[in-house]
Design a protein that fits this description.
With about 475 residues, this protein is an alpha/beta fold. The chain contains 18 helices and 14 strands. The protein has helices at about 15-25, 35-40, 55-60, 70-80, 105-115, 135-145, 165-170, 180-195, 210-240, 245-250, 275-285, 290-315, 345-355, 370-375, 405-410, 430-435, 450-460, 470-475, and strands spanning about 5, 30, 65-70, 80-85, 120-125, 150-155, 175-180, 205-210, 325-330, 360-365, 400, 415-420, 440-445, 460-465. The strands form 3 sheets. Strands 3-2-1-4-5-6 form a 6-stranded parallel sheet, sandwiched between helices. Strand 1, helix 1 (about 15-25) and strand 2 (about 30) form a beta-alpha-beta unit. Helix 1 (about 15-25) packs across helix 3 (about 55-60), helix 5 packs parallel to helix 6 (about 135-145) and helix 11 (about 275-285) runs antiparallel to helix 12 (about 290-315). The longest helix has about 30 residues, at about 210-240. The radius of gyration is 24 Å and the shape is elongated. The N and C termini lie far apart (about 60 Å). The structure holds nicotinamide-adenine-dinucleotide and uridine-5'-diphosphate-xylopyranose (UDX). Uridine-5'-diphosphate-xylopyranose binds near residues 157, 261, 262, 269 and 335. Nicotinamide-adenine-dinucleotide (NAD) binds near residues 8, 9, 109, 272 and 386. Its EC number is 1.1.1.22. Belongs to the UDP-glucose/GDP-mannose dehydrogenase family. Keywords: NAD, Oxidoreductase. It comes from Forsythia ovata.
Length: about 475
């Protein structure tokens, strides 16, 4: 019987291992973490992350062949395959700060594996890491290995939050990179056999180590680039009277381009895109490729521009000031169906509005007040360090209140900003919201979820990303 141990019980480690346990009942899977509260939550009825379908999977296998533990060393030492799914945040200080990946957590996991191992192991990079990380990890493991054979594989994860279980059940592909040696091929085969329990063989791709590592960064860069491309077009749509949804549709029906991932938005968020592109930029710079680095940097620059543009639009439309005006924020998570707020565009938009002295009333169905306050007071990039390393009682922003109802958030507000595309926002009673707001009542839709015409009929002044502008907005100063 194979025993798998996964170091890191986060958004990737938890769901990925739960699905492996479900699909491979004969494999024992233990997910370990240094965070006691996180492991306690995995062992409780209140899982530490919100992900549709996850609870059901965990309940089916927890206590049978799926376990969550803080006894990291014991389970690593007993495992045949060790996945490492710890966070790899952007460095906040020192060489490469603000760009390079911080491999502190990865390195400490690798050193621990080397220390506690008594038998041969396959060590799998599940975290997203800079290309060539496997070489460094190999050095750490073999340097301390006491004659133990370690095979390093790269098996990057492509799940998206909010659809993680669906993505894991039916992945477009599973990618496994390994050394091109007899031992390397054997290790690749062993991991392939795990996925083959439910993933068709033709969807399991094998490559060399460096291709697998780089493919993950490349895939995220390509995806983010599509969003920045359509967001750049959204600005031009607003300036010309074109409608970005119509443009996206027309462009996406070209089978070479395809229709997915072309929704204009207030900007992309999430723990991966920005971090991984910055990391890619840093790697290009280190490899003497400044032009390539500059090319990818633009994806981030347009994303920052889009968030700024949204804030400027709100302020400019409301007579160039939001000071002391109540602005309702609907949605704080970085996308729907998750409670995750890492790099959510809502942080930058809220900070921008707070900078102009707005009073914010925030509602998100899955994000707690503590988390929102923490996000609005934390320094850039600090968020991606484990929860237990973050300040427990952050200072609070007094201009912010967090409520548990969209109607409460919007009552007496001057404006509403929709920052996450939660389905429930599509069916709100906007007539009721309008009746309870200050007039003129503004609505700024950063996710294109509302019916613009219907809301204009009610009486709202409506702004929706990349859509033809209201006469009111056209008369206001140009926004850059
Ligand atoms: P996360 O912060 O949710 O989880 C990481 C966990 O690792 C934390 O619980 C932390 O306590 C634990 N940890 C850190 N150091 C440890 C150590 N030495 N020993 C034991 N536990 C340790 O992060 P995540 O979102 O799951 O991401 C993990 C990796 O997967 C990152 O490299 C990320 O880029 C990548 N990734 C994330 C996603 C996503 O959607 N979140 C998708 C694909 C890939
Ligand atoms: C991403 C990748 O999709 C996934 O493959 C990788 O493993 C991790 O990073 P994730 O960040 O969880 O996944 O969500 P994703 O669906 O990619 O959305 C990222 C951001 O882009 C969100 O803020 C989302 O709202 C935004 N987005 C997405 C758009 O603005 N427009 C789109 O068309 C699609």
């Amino acid at each position: 019987m194979v025993k798998i141990c996964c170091i890191g019980a986060g958004y990737v480690g938890g769901p990925t291992m739960a699905v492996i346990a479900l699909k491979c009942p004969k494999i024992e899977v233990v997910v370990v973490d240094i965070s006691v509260p996180r492991i306690n939550a995995w062992n409780s009825d209140q899982l530490p992350i919100y992900e549709p379908g996850l609870e059901d999977v965990v309940k089916q296998c927890r206590g049978k062949n799926l376990f969550f533990s803080t006894d990291v060393e014991k389970h690593v030492s007993e495992a045949d395959i060790v996945f490492v799914s710890v966070n790899t945040p952007t460095k906040t200080r020192g060489l490469g700060a603000g760009k390079a990946a911080d491999l502190t957590y990865w390195e400490s996991a690798a050193r621990m594996i080397a220390d506690v191992s008594k038998s041969d192991k396959i060590v799998v990079e599940k975290s997203t890491v800079p290309v060539k990380t496997a070489e460094a990890i190999e050095k750490i493991l073999t340097h301390n290995s006491k004659g133990i054979n370690f095979q390093i594989l790269s098996n990057p994860e492509f799940l998206a939050e909010g659809t993680a279980i669906k993505d894991l059940f039916k992945p477009d592909r599973v990618l496994i990179g390994g050394r091109e040696t007899p031992e390397g091929f054997k290790a690749v085969k062993a991991l392939k056999d795990v996925y083959a329990h439910w993933v068709p063989e033709e969807n399991i791709l094998t490559t060399n180590l460096w291709s697998a590592e780089l493919s993950k960064l490349a895939a995220n860069a390509f995806l983010a680039q599509r969003i920045s491309s359509v967001n750049a077009m959204s600005a031009l749509c607003e300036a010309t009277g074109a409608d970005v949804s119509q443009v996206s549709y027309a462009v996406g029906t070209d089978s070479r381009i395809g229709p997915k991932f072309l929704n204009a938005s207030v900007g992309f968020g999430g723990s991966c895109f920005q971090k991984d592109i910055l990391n890619l930029v840093y790697i290009c710079e280190c490899n003497g490729l400044p032009e390539v680095a500059e090319y990818w940097k633009q994806v981030i620059k347009i994303n920052d521009y889009q968030k700024n543009r949204f804030v400027n639009r709100v302020v400019a439309s409301m007579f160039n000031t939001v000071a002391n005006k109540k602005v309702a924020i609907l949605g704080f998570a970085f996308k729907k169906d998750t409670g995750d707020t890492r790099e959510t565009p809502a942080i930058d938009v809220c900070k921008g509005l707070l900078g102009d002295k707005a009073q914010l009333s925030i509602y998100d169905p899955q994000v707690t007040e503590d988390q929102i306050q923490r996000d609005l007071t934390m320094n850039k990039f600090d968020w991606d360090h484990p929860l237990h390393l973050q300040p427990m009682s952050p200072s609070t922003v007094k201009q912010v209140s967090v409520v548990w109802d969209a109607y409460k958030a919007t009552k007496d507000a001057h404006a509403v900003c929709i920052l996450t595309e939660w389905d429930e926002f599509k069916t709100l009673d906007f007539q009721r919201i309008y009746d309870n707001m200050q007039k003129p009542a503004f609505i700024f839709d950063g996710r294109n979820v509302i019916n613009v015409d219907k809301l204009r009929e009610i009486g709202f002044i409506v702004y929706s990303i990349g859509k033809p502008l209201d006469a009111w907005l056209k008369d206001m100063p140009a926004v850059a």
